[in-house]
Design a protein that fits this description.
4CMD/NDH-1_regulator; mainly alpha; CMD-like; 132 residues; AhpD-like; 73% helix; 2 domains; peroxiredoxin activity
Length: 132
């Protein structure tokens, strides 16, 4: 293993591990694209996520906004919602971060993201979320 990969694994461990959702995504493609998960760990976590400048909670809020705006990335959104909770982002903050995407991403993408958030929060027995 190389230094970038080791740094990426260490960063994932700091964030609560790769998580079941992320691990399933990596494993599901191992037979067709075995290098994809290695590249994700090296680049996304070893290079980008490990940069200084933002604490893990703020970094996850940024990622949630981007994934919400992209749409169609529910597995990644779920993984980052789980990670955000692992690093101390409160449920109401998750909801608000997704709501902030509404003027830019539109109702369909925000509803889709909020549906994933509801599922994650429900799985952790964090519903209902009190209003801000």
């Amino acid at each position: 293993m190389n230094e970038r990969y080791e740094r990426g694994l260490a960063r994932q461990a700091e964030l609560g591990g790769p998580g079941a959702t992320r691990a399933r995504a990596y494993d599901a493609l191992a037979d067709i694209a075995p290098d994809l998960s290695r590249l994700a760990v090296e680049f996304a976590y070893g290079d980008i996520h490990a940069r200084p400048g933002l604490d893990p909670a703020r970094r996850e809020l940024v990622v949630l906004g981007v994934l919400t705006a992209l749409g169609g990335v529910e597995p990644q959104l779920q993984a980052h919602l789980e990670t955000a909770l692992n690093v101390g982002v409160r449920p109401a903050e998750l909801v608000e971060a997704i709501m902030q995407a509404l003027p830019y991403a539109g109702f369909p993408r925000v509803f889709a993201a909020m549906t994933v958030a509801r599922r994650v929060l429900q799985s952790r027995d964090l519903l209902p979320v009190p209003p801000p």
